Amino acid sequence: MTKRKGNRVILSFICFILGSMLAFSYQYTKREASKRNITDRQWQKEYDYRERLIKIQKENRRLKNELVQKQNEVVEMEKALAEQQTSYTDLAKQAEKLRMYVGEAKVKGKGIEITLSDASYIPSEQSATDYIVHEQHVFKVIHELLISGAEAIAINGQRISHRSYIVCNGPVIEVDGTQHAAPFVISAIGNPTVLASALNIPGGVKDQLIQDNIIVRIASKDEIVLDPIFHANHP
């Protein structure tokens, strides 16, 4: 009887132990399952966030590349506009220079004035024409000034151009239909040193004019103002 009672105690103890183990196992499994479910949800959220971040980064790279491309296009457009502006500026300068050369624009600048006067003493009336200024004398001066770089020329304030004509008409010289009497003041805009040196070359224009009994005076000017041909001919 005592032996049976002992067996029952042992069996009850074993059952208790087994029940405790089963209960612990159940609770542990439940907790682990619960933990695993939370981790899965968190992982899913992190995955979604990561996917969104990757998409945003890709979009940012695309927009950045597009921005760089647009910036390059803007730079190219600015270069083209700058070149175009430079071209327009050059064309405007060329047009202004051409208007200056043909006498259609008012100009001012440094230059020289050459005064051609008839001889102060004429030996006889028969030889008077040998002591006065003729159109060929004026032509010599103008030609030398032009090949020496004169930018604009006037005779007694009247602008001349590539179409101008100069002829003798008795004791006066006619320039484009307008008569001028001696002395003749030829104004030229350009480098004063260069222009004066060209006329003063030994055996050059000045010496030739002096040999023809013409009085020649050359003066450098800090500023010469020449009106356009229209204003010069129609004051």
UniProtKB/TrEMBL annotation:
Entry keyword annotation includes Coiled coil: yes
Alphabetical keyword list: Coiled coil
Protein name: DUF881 domain-containing protein
Alphabetical list of Gene3D superfamilies matching this protein: Protein of unknown function DUF881
PANTHER family: UPF0749 PROTEIN RV1825, UPF0749 PROTEIN YLXX
Keyword Coiled coil: yes
Family (UniProt): Belongs to the UPF0749 family.
Pfam families (UniProt xref): DUF881
Residue ranges that the Swiss-Prot or TrEMBL entry lists as coiled coil: 53-87
Species the sequence originates in: Parageobacillus galactosidasius
